[in-house]
Amino acid sequence: MTSLDPNSPELMASKPPVAREGPDVPAFIVHHRPFFILAAVLVAQLLLLSLQITRNHDVRLIRVWAVAVFNPFQRSLHVITNMSVEAWRTYRSLLRAEQENRELHTQLASAQSQIQQLSEQAAESGRLRALLEFKSQLPVQTVAAEVIASSPGENSNAIFIDKGTGEGLTSDLAVITPAGVVGKTIAAFSHSSQVLLLTDPSSGVGVMLEKTRVQGVLKGDSQNLCLIRYIMNEEPVSFGEGVLTSGLDQIYPKGLRVGMVVATGAGNIYKNVEVKPAVDLSRLETVLVVLKPNSIQQQALNARP
């Protein structure tokens, strides 16, 4: 029989390696059992003493300790609860405020729309009242008309009104407003008419200066202004002087306001006189069309100063 050497390489290689692990917890407790027993006894004695010992107002010590231990947590929980409740109340208040804000915004928009409509109605009533008062003061017969369109083009110098031959309108009728002269009709249809404005170069109005009574012919220059032709250089023309119709063209009644002198200068023979129309021709809504007067009315018009 062959004897085996315990230190031989074969046996050394066949031995399983010993695993190195941490300390065994049960073994640690068994080894230090007296310490743990002592600690348990001390805790038990403290609990028994706290149950027997009382403080002020016969409050047991165990309750005092419990309060001391749990009171911070209770206070923290109370603070968190109050903050949560307050945050929820604030959130609900914000929701109500947002809803009320939306409702108020809707009511404000509705009120503004109503105010705008009422303002527009009041302005229209004012314009119609002024138009009727002006119409009642005229010595000629007129027809009220609404502006329905303007001729195409960037600098349009013609408009269309909603009255035509059905209402007795023809061409070459004066179109006016309480503020002054607008132009004249150049075409009349069944229920509409085309009006040539003062600012068109092909227009022509017999005019006179309000102070000196010097007469001339007003022509448009397509730049929202007009020019007075045939006033001699030696005639005095002052800035801001009013321009009225002379009635010599047999279209516009005498004495209607046309505009105001805004610039003047000497020319070769005649003065260059620029006139700003009395009527804002870009904001026309309602106008009056002057019908042809009969012979008696024409004589009365010619006799006006």
Keywords for this entry:
single chain; 305 residues; alpha+beta; Thrombin, subunit H; 6-stranded antiparallel beta barrel; 5 helices
Task: Characterise the protein shown here.
- The relative contact order is 0.10.
- The chain has a domain at 142-302: Thrombin, subunit H (Beta Barrel), CATH 2.40.10.
- The strands form 2 sheets. Strands 1-2-5-4-3-12 form a 6-stranded antiparallel beta barrel. It has a 6-stranded antiparallel beta barrel with strand order 6-7-8-11-10-9.
- It contains 5 helices and 12 strands.
- Helix content is 39%, strand content 23%.
CATH architecture of the domain at 142-302: Beta Barrel
User: What letter string, H or E per element, gives the SSE order?
Assistant: HHHHEEEEEEEEEEEEH
CATH homologous superfamily of the domain at 142-302 - what is it? Rod shape-determining protein MreC, domain 1
Would you identify the regions where 5 or more consecutive residues have pLDDT less than 50?
none
Predict the CATH topology of the domain at 142-302: Thrombin, subunit H
Write the layout of secondary structure elements.
Elements: H1 9-14, H2 25-31, H3 33-52, H4 61-137, E1 142-150, E2 158-161, E3 174-177, E4 180-188, E5 193-197, E6 205-209, E7 215-220, E8 226-229, E9 242-245, E10 257-265, E11 272-277, E12 286-290, H5 295-302
Antiparallel strand pairs: 1-2, 1-12, 2-5, 3-4, 3-12, 4-5, 6-7, 6-9, 7-8, 8-11, 9-10, 10-11
